[in-house]
Each structure stands twice: as C-alpha cells, then as structure tokens.
Design a protein that fits this description.
Layout lengths: L7 H11 L4 H8 L3 H15 L4 H14 L2
Helix pairs in contact: 1-2, 2-3, 3-4
Length: about 70
C-alpha cells in the first residue's frame, strides 16, 4: 500500500464519516457540497488503489495503524 499523506480537508472528512456522519451531514459540517465529498473520497480511493468505500475504510485503518 502506498504511503499516502492526507490533507487537512481529507482528515476532517474521514473523521466525520468515522463518527457516523452521512455524506450530506459531513458536507454541511465542512461547508462543502455533497459532490465535493464524493470527489474527495474518489480521489482517496484512486490514490490508495481501492475500489469501494469498505476497502477505503480498511486502507485508512491500516495507514493509521502503521503510523502509530
């Protein structure tokens, strides 16, 4: 898995989603559009080489564990 540094916006979005926010509620909290949430997640999936949100969660968890 590539070593991927998340931007502040990506970190904030991932944190909100991990707390159970929907895309729409995370978008509201971050003051971005729901489409931006989709675009951010798609870009993360592309960078990490995963195909869906479940795999994205696993990859982000592995990245977090590796940095500890």
């Amino acid at each position: 898995m590539p070593d991927v540094a998340l931007t502040a916006r990506e970190e904030s979005l991932v944190a909100l989603l991990a707390l159970g926010h929907t895309d729409a509620s995370a978008a509201r909290d971050l003051r971005i559009s729901a489409r931006s949430v989709t675009n951010i997640l798609r870009a993360l999936m592309d960078r990490l080489g995963v195909e869906n949100r479940f795999q994205l969660g696993l990859a982000l968890g592995a990245l977090r564990a590796a940095r500890r």
